[in-house]
Amino acid sequence: MSWASPLLAAAATLLVGFVLFSLLGKSPLEAFHAFFVKPVESLYGVAELLLKASPLMLCATGLAAGYRANVWNIGAEGQLTIGAMCGGGIALALQDFGGAWLLPLMILAGALGGMAWAAIPAWLRTRFNASEILVSLMLVYVASLVLSYLVHGPWRDPEGFNFPQSKMFTDVALLPNLLGETRLNVGLLLALAVIAVGWLFMRRSLVGFQMRVAGLAPAAANYAGISAKRTVWLGMLIGGATAGMAGVGEAAGPIGQLLPSMSPGYGFAAIIVAFVGRLHPLGVLLASLLMSLLYLGGEAAQINLSLPSAVTGLFQGTLLFFLLATDVFIDFRLRFQRRPSRSLSTGRPVTAGEST
Amino acid sequence: MEHFAALIALTLAAGTPLVFASLGELVTEKSGVLNLGVEGMMLVGAVVSFIVAAMTKAPWLGVFAGMVAGATLSLVFAVLTLTLMANQVATGLALSLFGVGLSAFVGLEYVSVVIEGIRPLAIAGWSDLPFFGKLLFAHSPFVYLSLVLFALIEWFLFHTRGGLVLRAVGESPESAHAIGYPVIAIRYLAVLFGGACAGLGGAYLAVAYTPLWTEGMTAGRGWIALALVVFATWKPRRVLAGAYLFGAVTLAQFQAQALGVAVPSQLLSMLPYLATIIVLTIISRDAAMIRLNAPASLGRPFHPEA
């Protein structure tokens, strides 16, 4: 039944959108068409949908693996930034030596960079017990400042009219296009491959099984001798690696250079994607497409409806809220009854905990 | 000496939003609820207070609206986690993401609006005193307000029956329920109070400290506030100390820039975030102390009928 709540949540979010568009004085049907249909009516639009879904798939697959093990990495945005920086750094440093080996090297560097950035919260958590939630989030700000320093300073394009941006990457450092005149590139294939590997890893490997046990029943995992520290390390590093790859995908894909900001919040949106996708690779695939559509819709709404594109963030948050709320109606059976009076309830044995 | 007094005043001004947000979150966590949505509540508090202040030309009305907005957002969190028993970590994250999106959406048309903010006090006679005038009598009203709030919370938590009940609910909701206290209702109040305080912190930023609205203007202060509560081992007094420490760190970057220190500005801007990580690490290292001081039921759902 757990697949039902994302559908219910999506429907409820649409309803909110309906009300919101009406309140803003737009015809809801027209707005819906402009928001959800028009962006994907053309081949170009579908390609954009897949292009924007790719980094979300990558980040969310890695995050989902961690969340399954109760490892709360919320700093994918920072790991993405560092990944883009490492991959882009390779592209800039080796621009005179390009070859077919350059792109794989960049992706590897991005994955390693993301892993290194994620290793900081993992180490502080396992060694010093510091909350990985707060540390990984703080590192998002640090990462963006590191990249900002580089593109304002040492890596700035000397012919860039003083804009904070690096040189454009050479052609061999750009992901090849998949589909004619569109911007879709082989990053999509990478993302799909990672989803497949993620599914195999969580479903078919012993380590993946151990991570799931550690998330579902920490005490049982401990009893079975599954190292809690290793679980944290794995959860963080997997998330860091995929987010880092997503960063390279952006730098070597639609952007083609390094800018102070490499993503419109893909790392945060991926948290929502992971939850809406039920932490399952196939669900992540579908949720990425939905979230990508919200990004496209936001851009289209800005152009066609003169609505601010920030409406995307609003819809994303609303979607997650409804998902969490509808889960309750699936995980629990609600019984409406009158409150027992106070005198009756005393002396009753009291137990607490979740009833599932 | 005058310069020193001015530095102290600036430190207090920079630390005050953290005082509000952290004290509110501390009360919430004392009741056993972990609300990770502080950043979102601060942002919504900031944007709502700014809009109301800009529309009505009454900044204090804006501040009140900001508190109401923060509390309203926390009510969503409370319904989801306390009544519907959703996961507190996931719901808190959702609240932060939602708050970022909502505030950006609502505040879009107010990005370059200028308002008459709430200025620091100038108490005739007193604030012109040498040294002590600047040190004691010329702060923003919010600084005094935050100190009053601190005193009230310290008194309430540790010197009143209500505070005892709140702490009991956070330590052992089962026991508190067994002796007849309405655990869920108490947790609702604690969450709402935390939301109002976060909204107040955001309002201070938007209508007094800066005073302007920019997207994401809290710049992670909500998350730093969460770290501060851990740093303070859930003690209001140490929250105050921690908040001013961070105020000083924030200030250090501007001071260094003013003094022309040859360090990239980005490196200086990292200081508050790096300081948060370092401080959090040092404090968390002692797992026994954290376990001793953290409310025992923190983050654990409780349902009286279960």
Please, could you describe this protein's structure?
- The complex is a heterodimer of chains A (356) and B (306).
- Chain A is 69% helix and 0% strand.
- Chain A has 14 helices and no strands.
- Chain A has helices spanning 4-23, 28-37, 43-68, 76-93, 102-128, 132-152, 187-204, 206-216, 218-223, 228-255, 266-276, 281-304, 311-331, 342-345.
- The radius of gyration of chain A is 22 Å and the shape is globular.
- Residues 341-356 of chain A have low confidence and may be disordered.
- Chain B has 306 residues and is mostly helical.
- Chains A and B meet through helix 5, helix 6, helix 11 and helix 13 of A and helix 4, helix 8, helix 10 and helix 12 of B.
Radius of gyration of chain A: 22 Å
Counted by DSSP, the helix tally of chain B is 13
State the low-pLDDT regions of chain B, or none: none
Strand content of chain B: under 5%
Q: What best-fitting shape of chain B do the alpha-carbon axes yield?
A: globular
Major β-sheet annotation of chain B: none
Q: Biggest β-sheet of chain A: count, sense, barrel?
A: none
How many DSSP-defined strands of chain B?
0
